[in-house]
Design goal:
Shape: rod-shaped
Largest sheet: 3 strands, antiparallel
Structural class: mainly beta
Number of strands: 14
Strand order of the largest sheet: 3-5-6
Number of helices: 0
Order of helices and strands: EEEEEEEEEEEEEE
Strand content: over 45%
Distance between the termini: 115 Å
Radius of gyration: 35 Å
Amino acid sequence: GEHTYTISRTDPAGNPSSHTLSITRDTTPPAITLTSAALVKDSLYTLTYDIVDAVDGTLTKSQTLTLTEGENSITVTATDAIGHSVSSTFSITLDTIPPAITNVQAPGLTDQTQITAFFLTDNTPDQETLTLEEGEHTYTISRTDPAGNPSSHTLSITRDTTPPEITLTSAALV
């Protein structure tokens, strides 16, 4: 913490003099906090972090890095004015792969006003309810993963509520 000292002296002639001095005792290393995203979809990444020190305050720093697909470990070291040093390792994940929409199960022909399409998004069961108008339509199922990568799957569904027309081609004999 901070301490204030006053040094006083009197010369042989009896003239007093004093000087006040503040001294801060720093025994705490700085802390490092990640402020940029830990999950990204672009390989060119700007790592941004805060260095917080009890005496020096907060300093925001950044550096640009090129990430590889998957988990990347990045170590940052900070040293305060007195020489206390600390290192922090951050895990930054690069995900450039869009989610896979597979095993789509939906009727191609129906008389219902709504159907539920069942499918897998990255091998996780998923579903979407579609509202149908009369006739043939194209629907797009869209998903975005936590990194922001979009994906879509298109399917065609026909809603037919018109009953078949029966035509008599010959007269019945009685």
